[in-house]
Design brief:
The chain is an all-alpha fold. Helix content is 68%, strand content 0%. The chain is elongated, with a radius of gyration of 17 Å.
Length: 65
Amino acid sequence: MLSTTIRTESVIESLRDLPERVSVDEIIERIIVIAKLDDALEQAAAGQVYSHDFIMNQAKEWIKR
């Protein structure tokens, strides 16, 4: 599930890269991406990841179907 909190610093840094005028949709999209990346980093730090070999074996199984 997507985290409901993100680092303010991450959002501010990302918004600085935007052009002078930008749509609200693009701002919201960036915030969502930041939240997803923060979640992924937290999961990786907690060891909640799959190995490359596991994913490759899963892919082979899916292709067989």
